[in-house]
Amino acid sequence: MEKTEAQLLCSRTLKKGAEPLTEATLLPTCLALGGKEVLVCCVCGSAAGRLQRLPGGAGSFTMDETVAEYIRRTVLKIPRDEIKTMLQKWGFLSETQLQTINFHQMKDNISQEVVQLCEENSASIKQAAVLDIIYNHSYPNKRIWSVYQMNKTEEETDFFDLTDFRKKFKRQLRSTLKNVTINFREYENNAIWIRIAWGTPYTKPNQYKTSYVVYHSQTPYTFISSSVLKSNLPLLCQALVVASNYQDIHEMELRSHSLNSLEDIVFKRYSQNFETYCPRPLQESTAARETDLRIVQENINEKERILRVNREAFGDGPQPKLEFAEYKLETMFTSDPKLEVLHKKEPFRCTVKFHSPHLLESLKSLAPAGMADAPLSPLLTCIPHKARNYFKIREKKGFFPGSFVSP
Amino acid sequence: MEEGKAHPPEGVFAHLEMLEARAHEAAVKQVAMEQRKEQLARLEARVQELRQWRDELQAKVELQEQGQHGQEGVVTDPVQHSAQAVLEWKIRKVKSTLQVFYLTGISGKLSKQGVCFCISTAYEGTYLDSYYLDLLTEPEVRIHRHSIPTFIPMEQIAKKYLQTDIRRFLSVLSDHLNAYVRRRYQADQLQEHFSDQIEGTMQRNSLCNLLVFNYNPSSKSETFPFNARLLYGDLCCSLPTEVVVSCAPDAPAALAEMAAAHSDLFRRLALHKAFGSFGSAGEHVDGAQ
What we know:
Chain A is α+β, with helices and mostly antiparallel strands and 407 residues long.
């Protein structure tokens, strides 16, 4: 037979059992589609990734090269001492397979060994994507996350069904764009992680420019770390709204690398200073710790006031982690009309940006360190309460919900 | 010999008697001496004690005098003193009453601009999470800050009751929170104690008002023939309103019967308790077969 080297069978056909193959039932294994040659199963004609040569053929079918390369690169991203635990979480390689890997060699070699084992198990992009989700879940700080809020008008009890959500999300996204890789993974805190790799109608999904969505069921908030390919964001938002039974979605102007802190802010889990009678540990005042009686704190009252006011604004506990805050001022210059200085309708435009590895903690320590007056401007202290770190400051008549007036 | 015998004995007896009497006297004296010594020691100790007491009292008097000299003009009024003590006692009592209120689940404290409420939840004698609600009272009642989970429909409850009936608002909110926490607690308990009877992890949502899982009533076998779908239609309730337990369509009739019995059990009992009751019931069925 001339075609022997190209006779491929997909796994489903193999499972069904070897039907007697005749010349008539065999399809040509190479189909020319849009100028590109595509390998298909010679019985059912499907072009799935897991094709195997006919039993007896020379060698077994190796997995997609792009999948192998993707797994290799993902493994390279993981710190060496965590590779093993992450592969265990992945669960794609068996424990005996994992034992054969030498984790004490160069990462490059480890990744090669992992890829080899994955080839044995004939991994597809589906499994590779799961490994990527596991990596991103362990290192969410490598991405920048933005919070989106969804709205709906009718208020009815929602029985969120995960399988339903998945189905709707996939169907909605695939209805507009066929070439997408969508993967889900649920975590214990009712968070659903969604990874989307985008393609175009003519190209395969780009696995290296993925979007990530973290959605907590029955909440109106989603955390999106969008791909570099921004044009797909509306599609993603639409799919989310449809799948979770909401009507519209908008960005909240709250962004950070720390996904956990964003969750703490919108889910109101950050430390807020609530006044209650509930027993809570008393804070030792700094004055009591002063042992040397000769030292007199002259401004002890002032210091205590600062501490109290600061505590009212920030609470006792640690602050959520944000790296930046941005204020855009668009206010009119108001002066005596007689002076005729800058009597224009054009507003002043200026942008103030704050950068810090831990912005809220540094703001919290400003007043006690004597670097700012207490209380701080509400513009700075309202960040977690308003759940936003991008502000536009306009004249009071502005329609902006915050409607701040510059001090 | 007779005489000799009779005479000397008289003399000897008299002598012995005398000696006996003397010995007795001596013994009595000794006892008396010892008693006196003991008494002396006791009295001396008592004297010591009294002296110490006197010294202490003297020191106290001195201290008091010094104190009075130190803060001249201030006269300690015993009446005022006791009034203050009563006041303090009253404050303590009120505070502990407030702590008792905390035990009821809803407690509040007046803050600068309004009231801060604390709603604490519990299930079967176990304290679970506490949630806070800061209300402003001027110009109208509104929610300032809170730590209530977003999936609790607080806005709807507020729309209904906040302006008209704050008591109702708080009690409905507390019902919602308690029911949510209890549903979550049951699911957690099931996951924790019966993980070997459940296939993988149970599928649930944030409100825990839909739970889906495959399970096996006994932990012995490896297959999970039953699929349960529990729907909690009433958000103020910790028992499901709709239960569907199904098994494979080609399963034997006994299994289908068991599924029906389980579905009834899930509707009546807390989830982890229902599973706890399988332990004995499951074996019973095995034995009957």
